[in-house]
């Protein structure tokens, strides 16, 4: 299976998950920042995919977030058209815990009738997205060195490591959810079309439940079969 990321990004060991969860829960910063961190740990999408998200992409009924190839530009916001990094729609099944968090965020940032509005708004301007450095700044306040311990991008490595170690999920399902670049163009076309969406839905719910189980102490992925 492909390595989680070719570029080195700091990420914690799985044994350190309980402390990470404890520090996130104890964080006293902006409420929206805490919710962004909790959500991104659950769905492990890339920074720009998260920060430039619009409410129109999220379907609460089907419990699915579809990140488009390209987003509508926001005036005076650089890179605001960035969508899914692989330049094709990225499907993110939403587990129970993610839906709960998104409903909390909706109370903070959704304006009635404005489905094109940003999910993660800036501190001082609701028409601007959350800053690129917001999550890493919060992690530093929690006591982490984001150049050595973990950064926001490191949530992807953490999730990928657990999913692989569990032995429960196919390589295609993990690779598709990580939205890694497929080197084989024929295989890429097939796997994108197939999407393995139902398995990925089960997989993300497993990951969320695995995180919850680690609140009471370290549980190895291969031991967690819920």
From TrEMBL:
Per UniProt, residues of the Tyr recombinase domain are 7-204
Q: Which GO terms describe its biological process?
A: DNA integration; DNA recombination
User: Record's Pfam families?
Assistant: Phage_integrase (PF00589)
Q: Which SUPFAM superfamilies match?
A: DNA breaking-rejoining enzymes (SSF56349)
**tRNA-binding among keywords:** no
Key word Heme present: no
Cite a single GO MF annotation: DNA binding
Q: Which UniProt keywords apply?
A: DNA integration, DNA recombination
What the record says about family reads: Belongs to the 'phage' integrase family.
Q: What is this protein called?
A: Phage integrase
Q: Which organism is it from?
A: Salmonella enterica subsp. enterica serovar Inverness str. R8-3668
The lineage, from the top, is:
Bacteria, Pseudomonadati, Pseudomonadota, Gammaproteobacteria, Enterobacterales
């Amino acid at each position: 299976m492909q390595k989680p990321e070719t570029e080195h990004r700091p990420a914690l060991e799985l044994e350190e998950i309980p402390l990470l969860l404890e520090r996130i829960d104890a964080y006293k910063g902006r409420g929206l920042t805490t919710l962004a961190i909790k959500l991104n740990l659950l769905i492990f999408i890339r920074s720009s995919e998260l920060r430039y998200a619009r409410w129109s992409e999220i379907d609460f009924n089907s419990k699915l977030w579809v990140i488009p190839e390209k987003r509508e530009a926001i005036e005076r916001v650089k890179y605001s058209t960035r969508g899914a990094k692989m330049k094709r729609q990225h499907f993110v099944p939403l587990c129970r815990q993610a839906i709960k968090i998104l409903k909390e965020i909706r109370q903070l940032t959704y304006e009635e009738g404005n489905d094109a509005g940003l999910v993660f708004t800036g501190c001082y301007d609701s028409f601007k997205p959350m800053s690129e450095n917001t999550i890493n700044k919060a992690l530093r306040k929690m006591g982490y060195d984001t150049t050595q311990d973990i950064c926001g991008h490191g949530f992807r490595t953490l999730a990928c490591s657990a999913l692989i170690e569990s032995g429960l999920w196919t390589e295609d399902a993990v690779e598709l959810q990580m939205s890694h670049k497929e080197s084989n163009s024929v295989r890429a076309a097939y796997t994108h079309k197939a999407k393995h969406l139902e398995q990925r839905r089960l997989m993300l719910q497993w990951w969320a439940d695995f995180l919850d189980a680690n609140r009471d102490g370290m549980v190895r992925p291969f031991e967690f079969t819920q």
